[in-house]
Specification:
It contains eight helices and no strands. The chain is mainly alpha-helical. It has one domain (55-195). The longest helix is centred in the C-terminal third of the chain and has 26 residues, at 170-195.
Length: 199
């Protein structure tokens, strides 16, 4: 296990612990998100015989449902979030069904676009709200939205060259993987900052 892998697990395990210890975080079920993510990562790390890269598509669909749920509640049951979430889950399943590879790139791309959408939509709603918090840095969802936005952008740049460069340019593929690992760790650290906010 590399240093970046170790840092990744430290950050995500710490986030899981915090989301369990602090009762104020229970209402958003952050512990569930971190627990599912960790279980899948451990299954892949241990090379469980029944696991293929398709499991990450299942994680994509779970995360669309999960983030749809928490943003739906955060934005006072906004119908746009509900429609977008259901539509993306259905499309993601269709893309998986017709995918010729274990991991459906289109499902992963759809998940990234969804995260970008809900994050920017949250920013739009908060900025246009006349009764908004003056200091948005105090809001947990400011950091969570920023985290998801950062991760999704880097994931798109990592995902599309993934299958092409692993064959034609292994060194460049490894560099992209390292950059994405760093971006993932940073995004989880930003997410962790959101967990520690009072609002």
């Amino acid at each position: 296990m590399s240093l970046l892998d170790t840092l990744y697990y430290i950050v995500i395990l710490t986030s899981l612990a915090v989301s369990i210890v602090f009762k104020k975080l229970w209402k958003h079920y952050f512990w569930l998100y971190f627990a599912v993510t960790i279980i899948i990562e451990l299954l892949v790390l241990c090379k469980a015989p029944f696991i293929t890269s398709r499991i990450y598509n299942y994680l994509d669909l779970f995360c669309i449902g999960y983030f749809g749920f928490i943003f739906f509640r955060e934005l006072k049951r906004d119908k746009i979030i509900k429609i977008a979430s259901i539509s993306c889950i259905v499309l993601g399943i269709v893309f998986m069904f017709f995918s010729q590879t274990h991991y459906s790139i289109l499902t992963g791309f759809l998940y990234s676009i969804y995260l970008i959408f809900v994050s920017l939509f949250w920013f739009y709603r908060k900025i246009s709200d006349e009764n908004r918090e003056n200091n948005m840095l105090r809001l947990a969802f400011f950091w969570i939205s920023s985290s998801l936005l950062l991760w999704a952008i880097f994931y798109i740049f990592r995902m599309f060259p993934m299958y092409f460069f692993v064959v034609s340019d292994l060194e460049f593929s490894n560099m992209l993987k390292t950059i994405f690992q760093i971006a993932t760790i940073v995004s989880y650290m930003i997410f962790f900052k959101g967990l520690m906010c009072e609002k």
